User: Fold these one by one.
Assistant:
Number 1:
Amino acid sequence: MKFRAARHTNILQPIIDFYTKIIGLKVLGDFQNHEGYDGVFIGEINENSTWHLEFTVSWQQPLHRPDVDDLLVFYPDKIEFENILKRIKEANYPTVQPQNPYWRRNGIALLDPDGYGVVIVKPAYLLEQ
């Protein structure tokens, strides 16, 4: 089964920049003026990937109300984790304190440009049990 999480935004380029330049995902494709929508597909490029994110923009403005526990959670390997931390530091991108104590101990939390939470889970060797 494949999975796509789709979300409407009014700031497509900052969203693309966050998920590619900070998180390290790739643009898999995009579309323009498809029944009034422009959008982008973002995810991993490999044959085992069965998911991706879709972000769209249109004439209608989104009405976002992210809750502190509305999270996208990524499980990078050690090298990916270290690269994400490096990009966060180089971009001076702010981290936040998640509400859930498990994520406070075991992840690094950020807010994407729309204000939704993103958790980067620490690799196993860094996890607190």
Number 2:
Amino acid sequence: MLTPRQGLGGPPTGAAPVPMQGARLLAPSLPGKFIGLWNNYRASAERNGWVAPDHPLWFLKPATSVVGQGAQVTIPAAAGRVIFEGELGLVIGRTCRNEGPETAETAIFGHTCINDLTSLDVLNAVPAFPQWARAKGFDGFGVIGPVIATGLDWRRLTIRTLVNGRERQAYPAADMIYSPAEIVSRLSFDMTLQAGDVIAVGTSLGVRPVKPGDVVAVSIEGIGAVEVTLMDTPVV
């Protein structure tokens, strides 16, 4: 697992290996910043009548929202209607600040799967102030995993989301408005990106509501699938 203070691609730590059987996978990175993008796919922009943004539209998810493969995610009673958002994630491998796309691309260590769970009811509860941070910031609403894959061509990837084993979302990463290099470059002028930071590059068509009891998996060939089970709020 990568923490914000560690570099990527360095020598192994020397820790003893752990058998996969019976192990619980944590999120492969504990990001200092978990950044999400909105309106970054042409198909969804066209379907909804959105204008392509002049700059990536982003929000932050808190570190406490992060969970990994096999987690149980409790949907708080206050969340109301919740949707999944299957996404491709970029994992930053070094400090990146005020860089152009050519060098910013080298700051991307690898890719992972993201499920950016979102409460629609919270997001739209106050018309004058969409609550992006709260709607996307509940514990467990930032699913990352199962691994960080390197050496992939993002243009050839398809993001798929399955609910209870049934495919509900499938779209090509190549439909992005801003490419990964452009995203990292633009964001590096807004904030310093650091090793371990994660950027969810946005979702496209096919997002749907989910409910307690559903098993939701985001799958990308070459990375694998990250699956969580949604749980109801315990009765006190």
Number 3:
Amino acid sequence: MAKIFSIINNKGGTGKTTTTLNLAAALVSQNKRVLAIDLDAQCNLSISFGVKESENHIGLLLTKQDSIDNYISNTEEGVDLITSSADLLDYEHKINNETGREYLLQEVLESIQDKYDFILVDCPPSLSTMALNALVASQYYIVPMQTENFAFIGLDKILDSAAKVNKRLNKGLELGGVLLIKFNDRTKFSQAVMSNLEGNDYLNGKIFKTRIRQDIALMESSAFNSSVLTYAPESRGTEDYLNFSKELLELYG
């Protein structure tokens, strides 16, 4: 049975796509079967995997409720992928008229639960119908946070919204953890972010020990349609995401 994780943050540019891409590749490197789903109309995850927009994308899948096997693309990283579409917002408007619209993704994933070990969902930078679909379909959600100014913008809202989803729509949803991105323990902002997180009782035990350090290879790799593991196997980014995948397996594997 696949473990389903939503990678979510209400703030843009926090490393959601970078984390989905490289965590998926790191899990595959450890012989795990992984499906990644791009739920963002910017299509950054699809582009980062080097997969052009497919006619059979996630928006069409959710509106047609067709066989999911027709929507899965193979990538050179060994990760299976369901692409997004630049027109995803149009499909979201159609979905908003559906009865039980928050359960559509959960329904289409039911038939492939035994085909994968992990399903990672790259969420849009908003708490939209698509993001709610991801949370309802998931057992866990991961919040990537950059250790910089304004890092806490949106975090409380995510935690509050996820708590409501847990209460009303998905009793099995849990916070998998907060993942610190672009981490540098020598800066005042990193120290301040860590201090605030560690002082939050709700997040006790929910801050991943692995820190994703600043690394130019992480930015470059996605621009070259590759995970950092393939682009720069000896880099700090590769080391950190491999460590993160191992920590995730120890906690939830």
